[in-house]
């Protein structure tokens, strides 16, 4: 079975010797060739060398700038042991690891072990868990490995992650896997820019929509008029115009500046996973991007999702899945033809893609699917106002229950919920309670009767809109995927293989709203960026919590909690899937149960790098 | 022009520096305390940025005279507090002489609502040649932001050093013909509460100015354009100008560059 699981260490476990530098790397995955010092090979995964000492696995990692070609252009990425991504770190559940990280950069750095449960001071967030790793210093991370699955690691300093400072991490389980496979590959997705990340951020700060080249044009308005009639086209224009929002604002940083990579290689380098016909191939997808959601498919193959964020789930056969930044999905495919298949990862806004190949031999390619039509356009669901699809039939909203509107006096004036009137302008939106449609009423969604308020001032000037009626979108594949004619993974498909030990009903609820103001590229929770809040979000040690997240923005956000699992409250009751990163669509509300069992301070943030940098970050304190 | 160089610019620079300092210190206060001495802040989210936008730098072929027109703004600051320097003027290059700095404002700007800034500060206006230079200063109170339906609005109330009161409004709208070809409509108008004959201004609505400019964004930062502009003086202002046997409406074909850094 798992042919490539354990690297054959040339060293006996007792010898305390460490290979240094590039020579420490070896290529696994059947080829046995040594990788060039600067990049991943076209096939297989580059494995970090490991030294075994008693019950401890020791890894040495060196952070550096290494000039190399990415695609056909020269670049100067941040590398880990000389490569982008860093080498695959393979740990074993039940053992200890020691990771000695040496900083050869001229600035401080760090490594955060994304999704790994560990002591507070080993989590690798400068300013929260430790002081960071100064230039020239070596920091020794040491912790017991108490879980298994597919994870990753990355810098938590500045914008280093955008420059290549990330890599895959696998923990092999102590018990046999509940599924079978013959081959095992990491497929790490990322976004690369030849530009300085601080320049990218400055562009976003100075010019709203700088990287968006699929804005609505006059022609789009006439197209709408032709397809839906002048009146509804005008209504649609007015609706978005009143909010000063764009239905085409899908991703902040797009293919106009990004080169998308799989295992560090762009499409033309064509990273290849080898198989023999009839084999089961496990592909461990990791989205190590700074800013990019991907839609992933392998035309001609069904993918069976067996794990999400490192945690095993009831197998789900899908044709496609959307992977948020920092999420991981393990899938198993069974290619039964002696031919090449394209692994196709399209950016969510269709502004670019990266492909890799699954093939019986090196050097093969399969046809690359036509990218689906731009532009992708958001509908009313994203405003947190509608149950149906994008449709301009305002009368469908006339049955809203206004009994619960009150917060700030002005709300009472909005009789009739006429979407053309002022209550559409979201900054003064009122707290309206929709009549749930029957399907949702019948559901056992834990938040179905929850009344959402947005503070006395709708989160202030840091929030350009609020969702008056955030909804359950866990059955919704998301923007641009709603009308594809094949099966796309949704959060409601994720059912844990086992019941997690802590089944106490949450004794406390914490509600946080995801907020932003695109015009100034401000991102925050509850309208306040990190520097504006007084202190941490307080968890009481040992308590069982329900964390409720409400997306009051027009963007998708992957929200990551360090140190503790979030058990997503989807339709599977006690078989809640555990995640380290939860992606929320615009207008979405969801909840997760958390056992606050990890004392200390932990980062909690949007995993879109520039959103975090703009202040969409909090510290959670467990005590 | 000499007075501009000798007096106004040095004092403007001094003001800019002071405002920059105060904005920087505001930003510095916003940084949270490190968790432990010597530890960094996990996220620096209060960085100050600056942008110099040359909105119009254009040659205008007018009915009577050709001018070079300019309009720009510079801002420095964070999300909430910013320093703005905004200006607009024209210089006659053929068919006459002289020119005008219509406005040159140095403003403190504070975001008060998601799409809106309140601004206050000092303004300057001058006309030069032919004849003696004329100038005046203002206290300026303004509002700037994005109105529903994506209209860029900049409106100001001005109190001059002679006690005259005036108000001005500028609105811009961008129509995207393609992702890079953009037609911009502009409308400007002003109101004066007093007769100010020195500057050819009568009481009431003084003028209305329309412009249409078609630009192509080679990069977001760099877009040449061509366009037309039309200005009509109204009411008492028109009468004043007629009495001086000046035209009360002007049209021009323009070509220029919009850029920012």
Automatic annotation (TrEMBL), chain A:
<dbReference type="InterPro" id="IPR006376">
    <property type="entry name" value="Cu-R_CopA"/>
</dbReference>
<dbReference type="InterPro" id="IPR034279">
    <property type="entry name" value="CuRO_3_CopA"/>
</dbReference>
<dbReference type="GO" id="GO:0042597">
    <property type="term" value="C:periplasmic space"/>
</dbReference>
<dbReference type="Pfam" id="PF07731">
    <property type="entry name" value="Cu-oxidase_2"/>
</dbReference>
<feature type="domain" description="Plastocyanin-like">
    <location>
        <begin position="246"/>
        <end position="348"/>
    </location>
</feature>
<feature type="domain" description="Plastocyanin-like">
    <location>
        <begin position="504"/>
        <end position="622"/>
    </location>
</feature>
<feature type="domain" description="Plastocyanin-like">
    <location>
        <begin position="72"/>
        <end position="174"/>
    </location>
</feature>
<keyword id="KW-0560">Oxidoreductase</keyword>
<dbReference type="GO" id="GO:0016491">
    <property type="term" value="F:oxidoreductase activity"/>
</dbReference>
<dbReference type="InterPro" id="IPR033138">
    <property type="entry name" value="Cu_oxidase_CS"/>
</dbReference>
<dbReference type="Pfam" id="PF00394">
    <property type="entry name" value="Cu-oxidase"/>
</dbReference>
<dbReference type="Pfam" id="PF07732">
    <property type="entry name" value="Cu-oxidase_3"/>
</dbReference>
<dbReference type="InterPro" id="IPR001117">
    <property type="entry name" value="Cu-oxidase_2nd"/>
</dbReference>
<dbReference type="InterPro" id="IPR002355">
    <property type="entry name" value="Cu_oxidase_Cu_BS"/>
</dbReference>
<dbReference type="InterPro" id="IPR008972">
    <property type="entry name" value="Cupredoxin"/>
</dbReference>
<dbReference type="InterPro" id="IPR011706">
    <property type="entry name" value="Cu-oxidase_C"/>
</dbReference>
<dbReference type="InterPro" id="IPR011707">
    <property type="entry name" value="Cu-oxidase-like_N"/>
</dbReference>
<dbReference type="InterPro" id="IPR034284">
    <property type="entry name" value="CuRO_1_CopA"/>
</dbReference>
<dbReference type="InterPro" id="IPR006311">
    <property type="entry name" value="TAT_signal"/>
</dbReference>
<dbReference type="InterPro" id="IPR045087">
    <property type="entry name" value="Cu-oxidase_fam"/>
</dbReference>
<dbReference type="InterPro" id="IPR034282">
    <property type="entry name" value="CuRO_2_CopA"/>
</dbReference>
<feature type="compositionally biased region" description="Polar residues">
    <location>
        <begin position="396"/>
        <end position="407"/>
    </location>
</feature>
Automatic annotation (TrEMBL), chain B:
<feature type="signal peptide">
    <location>
        <begin position="1"/>
        <end position="30"/>
    </location>
</feature>
<dbReference type="Pfam" id="PF05275">
    <property type="entry name" value="CopB"/>
</dbReference>
<dbReference type="InterPro" id="IPR007939">
    <property type="entry name" value="Cu-R_B_prcur"/>
</dbReference>
<dbReference type="GO" id="GO:0006878">
    <property type="term" value="P:intracellular copper ion homeostasis"/>
</dbReference>
<dbReference type="GO" id="GO:0009279">
    <property type="term" value="C:cell outer membrane"/>
</dbReference>
<protein>
    <submittedName>
        <fullName>Copper resistance protein B</fullName>
    </submittedName>
</protein>
<dbReference type="GO" id="GO:0005507">
    <property type="term" value="F:copper ion binding"/>
</dbReference>
<keyword id="KW-0732">Signal</keyword>
């Amino acid at each position: 079975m798992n042919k490539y699981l354990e690297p054959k260490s040339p060293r006996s476990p007792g010898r305390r010797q460490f290979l240094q530098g590039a020579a420490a790397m070896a290529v696994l995955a059947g080829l046995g060739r040594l990788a060039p010092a600067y990049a991943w090979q076209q096939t297989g995964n580059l494995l970090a060398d490991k030294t075994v000492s008693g019950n401890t696995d020791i890894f040495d990692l060196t952070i550096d700038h290494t000039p190399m070609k990415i695609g056909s252009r020269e670049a100067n990425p941040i590398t880990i042991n000389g490569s982008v991504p860093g080498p695959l770190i393979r740990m074993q559940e039940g053992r200890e690891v020691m990771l000695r990280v040496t900083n050869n950069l001229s600035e401080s750095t760090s490594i955060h072990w994304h999704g790994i449960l560990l002591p507070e001071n080993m989590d690798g967030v400068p300013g929260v868990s430790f002081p960071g790793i100064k230039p020239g210093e070596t920091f020794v991370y040491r912790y017991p490995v108490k879980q298994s699955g597919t994870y990753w690691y990355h810098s938590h300093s500045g914008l280093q992650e955008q420059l290549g400072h990330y890599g895959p991490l696998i923990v092999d389980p102590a018990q046999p896997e509940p599924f079978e496979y013959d081959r095992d590959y990491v497929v790490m997705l990322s976004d690369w820019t030849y530009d300085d990340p601080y320049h990218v951020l400055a562009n976003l700060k100075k010019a709203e929509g700088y990287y968006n080249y699929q804005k609505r044009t006059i022609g789009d308005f006439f197209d709408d008029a032709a397809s839906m009639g002048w009146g509804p086209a005008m209504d649609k224009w007015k609706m978005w115009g009143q909010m000063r929002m764009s239905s085409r604002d899908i991703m902040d940083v797009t293919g106009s500046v990004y080169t998308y990579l799989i295992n560090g290689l762009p499409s033309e380098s064509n990273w290849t996973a080898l198989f023999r016909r009839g084999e089961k191939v496990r592909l461990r997808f990791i989205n190590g991007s700074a800013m990019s959601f991907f839609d992933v498919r392998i035309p001609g193959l069904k993918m069976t999702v067996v794990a999400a964020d490192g945690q095993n789930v009831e197998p789900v056969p899908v044709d496609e899945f959307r992977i948020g930044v920092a999420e991981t999905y393990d899938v198993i495919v069974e290619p039964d033809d002696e031919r090449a298949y394209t692994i196709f990862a399209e950016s969510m806004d269709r502004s670019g893609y990266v492909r890799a190949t699954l093939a019986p031999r090196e050097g093969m390619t399969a046809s690359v699917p036509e990218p689906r039509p731009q532009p992708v356009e958001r509908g009313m669901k994203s405003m947190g106002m509608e149950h149906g699809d994008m449709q301009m039939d305002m009368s469908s909203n006339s049955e809203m229950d206004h009994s619960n509107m009150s917060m700030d006096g002005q709300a009472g004036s909005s009789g009739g919920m006429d979407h053309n009137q002022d209550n559409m302008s979201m900054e003064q939106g009122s707290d309206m309670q929709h009549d749930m449609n029957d399907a949702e009423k019948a559901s056992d969604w834990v938040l179905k009767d929850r009344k959402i308020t947005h503070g006395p001032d709708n989160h202030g000037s840091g929030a350009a809109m609020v969702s008056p009626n955030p909804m359950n979108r866990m059955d919704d594949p998301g923007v641009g995927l709603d009308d594809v004619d094949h099966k796309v993974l949704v959060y409601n498909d994720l059912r844990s293989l086992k019941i997690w030990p802590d089944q106490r009903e949450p004794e406390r609820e914490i509600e946080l709203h995801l907020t932003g103001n695109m015009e100034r590229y401000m991102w925050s929770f509850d309208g306040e960026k990190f520097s504006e809040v007084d202190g941490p979000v307080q968890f009481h040690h040992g308590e069982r919590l329900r964390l409720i997240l409400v997306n009051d923005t027009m963007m998708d956000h992957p929200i990551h909690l360090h140190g503790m699992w979030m058990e997503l409250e989807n339709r599977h009751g006690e078989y809640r899937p555990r995640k380290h990163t939860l992606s929320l669509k615009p207008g979405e509300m969801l909840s997760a149960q958390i056992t606050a069992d990890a004392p200390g301070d932990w980062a909690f943030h949007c995993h879109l790098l520039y959103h975090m940098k703009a202040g969409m970050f909090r510290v959670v304190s467990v005590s | 022009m000499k007075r501009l160089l000798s007096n106004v610019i040095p004092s403007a620079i001094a003001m800019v520096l002071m405002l920059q300092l105060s904005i920087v210190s505001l930003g510095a206060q916003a940084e949270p305390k490190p968790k432990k001495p010597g530890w960094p802040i996990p996220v620096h989210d209060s960085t100050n940025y600056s942008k110099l936008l040359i909105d119009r730098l254009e040659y205008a072929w007018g009915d009577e005279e050709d001018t070079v027109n300019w309009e720009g703004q510079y801002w420095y600051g964070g999300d909430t507090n910013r320093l703005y320097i905004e200006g607009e003027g024209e210089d006659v290059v053929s068919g006459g002489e002289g020119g005008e700095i219509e406005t040159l404002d140095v403003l403190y700007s504070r975001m008060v609502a998601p799409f809106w800034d309140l601004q206050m500060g000092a303004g300057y206006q001058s006309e030069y040649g032919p004849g003696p230079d004329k100038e005046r200063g203002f206290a300026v109170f303004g509002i700037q932001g994005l109105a529903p339906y994506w209209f860029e609005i900049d409106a100001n109330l001005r109190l001059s050093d002679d006690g005259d009161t005036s108000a001005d409004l500028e609105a811009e709208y961008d129509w995207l013909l393609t992702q890079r070809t953009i037609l911009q409509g502009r409308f400007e108008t002003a109101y004066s509460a007093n007769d100010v004959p020195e500057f050819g201004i009568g009481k009431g609505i003084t003028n209305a100015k329309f412009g249409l400019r078609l630009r192509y964004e080679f990069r977001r930062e760099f877009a040449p354009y061509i366009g037309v502009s039309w200005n009509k003086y109204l009411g008492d202002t028109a009468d004043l100008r007629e009495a001086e046997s000046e035209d009360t409406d002007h049209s021009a074909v323009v070509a220029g560059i919009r850029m920012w850094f």
